[in-house]
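User: Can you recover a sequence for this backbone? Please restate the input before giving your answer.

Assistant: Of course. Working from this structure:
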């Protein structure tokens, strides 16, 4: 199987190299009859490269499904699961480790390259040929590192030390396999969604470089790559959301975003992709922001590589990071520099081609849609750059700002919260602005109805803030514990709570301005209505998420302590209290896990709110016998406006009792609901037609 896998990689490398050479020669000789033959051969070679990668991926998947541990990577990441999810966990071994995830990413790049190739096979133009060339050039780098770097090839034979004389695995080998924390449906889907997003952004990058090479200033490259950018952003959003779900339900800390370096890495390309999508809209509909669109496409791809560089280089410490190696560090660093330089040089060389058409009016005020789009682009790119810098600060020289220091989560929050609220305010107001300038009377006329509705929603949220969130803040501060210190570091009470109220106001405006736009889209006709509908739903979703972020990130109440426990009678004489909740022990028990290998230690807790029993939860600890790793399963009481998150951390020393970690996560359901709406909105945008327009609005 190793031989077959390596043959697949060799075929992919050869196909990609031949494709690059043939397409380059075809473009250079485009005035001669042989050019079409060379270009056709280059496109066929691109399909061969994808086929070779498909063979290699199939080999690994087959080995995982059949427990063929003759490949070291399979032994290191195998799963012994059964049933539908067990089979899926086995397949997920393909992207669970460093080498396999590189192969999977390369396969996705090959897939998108094949889609571009087949899509324009019959009517390929120089723009399409160069785009395929760029994709194959990226593929050469990815496949090359797997072929010529022993640290990055997934097809290395298993070390003989892991086998007994009779061919069975040794005790040490039986300890190897996929981390049990990764064996969760959300985590199994999370990486491929991110990789789909990363690979999808290769297409806009390729077309951006292609339009620079060809020298075309029209919107054809946008029309051919915009759907890929939208799909990539949708997959990135879905991947980040699933990662948040996994962190919430598996890691046992009650949160969903911790500003971990690898978490930040996934956010970088997401931010720039927002700028890219908005640049595409302006480019396609108004013929503006041409260089912005090209550089955004290059930066989006570059930040995909930056995120991977952070995850794989070993320069930052993270529980999510892979073990670093020097070869991939050099490769990914080179790709980052090359992609940015290619875009910058292309824009400079074709400056005349990308200038606005003669007679195109310019924005007369910053208070216009054109000005808001420009601010959006600048903001997103600067935020991505700042986030990347803060993430890698610990690896930078000490003479640089924050160099050599790990930036705590509180610093990110102190920066992101006010800036994010200001940005979302601009997002809420933007649809009401005129394109080149804003007529105050027209603005007031458009804003009257959504502003009135927003005022009603804000009043409701303000009442909730005064009745629930403000007392929660007072309780957090009065506890005078570590959590209270973190909250107080964010600023004085007037600022902290004032920011929350402003965020509620912005969320209200964003929701009802989006609803107002939705009603206009529903009444409208035309092919673009589906795309506009998706955009409105996405903006609406962001407003919903903002409400959830205020409650679930700023007003979380914690209680960490012990519930007295009598082992003889399996009872407790007291209740565990947090806010209006009380937890009463119903049972404590131990037994074999579903896989009949591990051991579950669980407790049943009756949950009371204001003296009334509402539900029973069963938090548990799973002891993985093979590795002695502890895996926490939280008990969650999901209510419309808050979650009660209960984690059981075992029996305390010296008969201290049952150790409980309980959180009241307010408004967190709005985060999950908003995520669903956001993905749905982007899905509609992907489905919508992409057409050039000369409309002015």
């Amino acid at each position: 199987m190793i031989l077959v896998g390596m043959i697949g990689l060799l075929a992919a490398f050869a196909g990609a190299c031949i494709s690059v050479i043939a397409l380059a020669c075809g473009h250079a000789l485009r005035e001669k009859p042989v050019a079409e033959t060379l270009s056709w051969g280059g496109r066929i070679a691109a399909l061969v490269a994808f086929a070779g990668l498909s063979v290699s991926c199939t080999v690994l998947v087959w080995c995982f499904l059949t427990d063929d541990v003759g490949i070291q990577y399979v032994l290191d990441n195998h799963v012994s699961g059964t049933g539908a999810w067990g089979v899926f966990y086995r397949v997920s071994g393909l992207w669970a480790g460093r080498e396999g995830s590189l192969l999977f990413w390369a396969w996705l790049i090959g897939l998108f390259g094949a889609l571009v190739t087949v899509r324009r096979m019959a009517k390929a133009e120089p723009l399409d040929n160069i785009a395929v060339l760029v994709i194959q050039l990226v593929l050469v780098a990815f496949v090359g590192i797997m072929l010529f770097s022993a640290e990055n090839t997934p097809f290395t034979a298993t070390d003989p030390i892991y086998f007994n004389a009779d061919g069975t695995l040794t005790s040490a080998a039986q300890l190897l396999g996929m981390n049990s924390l990764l064996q969760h449906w959300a985590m199994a889907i999370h990486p491929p969604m991110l990789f789909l997003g990363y690979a999808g952004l290769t297409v806009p990058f390729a077309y951006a470089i292609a339009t620079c090479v060809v020298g075309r200033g029209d919107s054809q490259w946008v029309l051919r790559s915009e759907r890929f950018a939208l799909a990539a952003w949708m997959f990135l959003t879905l991947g980040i959301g699933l990662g948040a779900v996994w962190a919430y339900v598996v890691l046992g800390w009650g949160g969903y975003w911790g500003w971990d370096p690898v978490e930040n890495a996934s956010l970088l390309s997401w931010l720039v992709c927002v700028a890219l999508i908005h640049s595409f809209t302006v480019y396609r509909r108004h013929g503006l922001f041409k260089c912005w669109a090209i550089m955004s496409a290059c930066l989006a791809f570059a930040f995909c590589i930056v995120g991977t560089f952070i995850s794989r280089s070993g320069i930052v410490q993270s529980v999510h990071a892979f073990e670093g190696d020097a070869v991939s560090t050099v490769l990914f660093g080179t790709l980052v520099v090359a992609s940015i330089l290619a875009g910058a040089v292309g824009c400079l060389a074709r400056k005349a081609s990308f200038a606005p058409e003669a007679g195109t009016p310019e924005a007369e005020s910053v208070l216009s849609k054109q000005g808001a789009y420009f601010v959006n682009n600048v903001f997103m790119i600067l935020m991505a750059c700042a986030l990347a810098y803060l993430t890698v600060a610990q690896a930078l020289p000490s003479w640089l700002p924050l160099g050599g220091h790990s930036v705590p989560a509180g610093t990110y929050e102190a920066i992101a919260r006010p800036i994010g609220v200001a940005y979302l305010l601009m997002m809420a107001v933007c649809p009401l602005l005129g394109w080149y300038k804003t007529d105050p009377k027209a603005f007031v006329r458009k804003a009257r109805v959504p502003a009135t509705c927003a005022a009603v929603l804000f009043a409701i949220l303000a009442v909730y803030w005064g009745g629930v969130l403000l007392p929660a803040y007072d309780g957090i501060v009065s506890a005078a514990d570590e959590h209270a210190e973190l909250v107080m570091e964010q600023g004085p009470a007037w600022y902290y709570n004032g920011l929350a109220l402003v965020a509620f106001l912005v969320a209200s405006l964003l929701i009802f301005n989006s609803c107002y736009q939705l009603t206009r889209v529903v009444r409208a006709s035309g092919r673009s209505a589906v795309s506009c509908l998706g955009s409105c739903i996405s903006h609406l979703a962001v407003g919903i998420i903002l409400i959830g972020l205020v409650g679930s990130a700023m007003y979380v109440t914690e209680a960490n302590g012990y519930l007295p426990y009598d082992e003889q009678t399996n009872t407790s004489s007291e209740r565990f209290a947090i806010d209006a909740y009380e937890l009463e022990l119903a049972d404590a028990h131990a037994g074999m896990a579903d896989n009949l290998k591990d051991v579950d230690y669980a407790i049943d807790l009756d949950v009371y709110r204001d003296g009334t029993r509402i539900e029973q939860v069963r938090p548990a600890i799973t002891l993985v016998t093979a590795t002695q790793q502890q895996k926490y399963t939280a008990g969650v009481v999901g209510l419309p406006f808050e979650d009660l998150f209960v984690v059981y951390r075992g029996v305390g020393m010296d008969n201290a009792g049952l150790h409980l970690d309980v959180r009241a996560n307010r408004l967190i359901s709005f985060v999950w609901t908003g995520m669903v709406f956001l993905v749905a909105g982007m899905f509609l945008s992907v489905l919508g037609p992409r057409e050039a327009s000369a409309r002015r609005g």
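That completes the design. The two ends are 60 Å apart (CA to CA).
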